[in-house]
Amino acid sequence: MSIDSVRAIGSNTPYAVALSDDLGHTWTGDEPESLGGGNTGPSPSRLILSGLAACTVVTVQKYAARKQWPLRGIEVEVQWNPNGKPEDGSTEMRRRVTLRGELSGEQRKRLLQIANACPMHKALTGIIRVPTELQD
After folding, report:
1. Contact 115/59 with Cβ under 8 angstroms?
2. What is the pTM of this model?
3. H-helix or E-strand containing 113?
4. Which residues make beta-bridge pairs with 18?
């Protein structure tokens, strides 16, 4: 079993972060100029949103293909605190799923259930532990 792993390395450019994973992919994270960054890549919150959106698309596509349902396309939009930061300090991620194809009402309902069962949705709505250690 492989363990998903991502490494982030800061640079001399304020807030720009070089990201890489255990499969050899590389990308950049940053903050927008309005927050002092260079806007050379998505912000940390956008990176989380993209993980949920991508996972939703892939999970729904896999399920529909396995069932041989006529899903012709899927679009997922996720927003971070669309109505501002909740007073209780929590975070809201609003997700909108658009399904394309000649799907029955029952198929659409089931695909929404599948969207809510994608691994990132489960992780983000479950208990997350982040043990952190300082390396030399």
Report:
1. yes
2. 0.91
3. helix 105-115
4. 9, 28
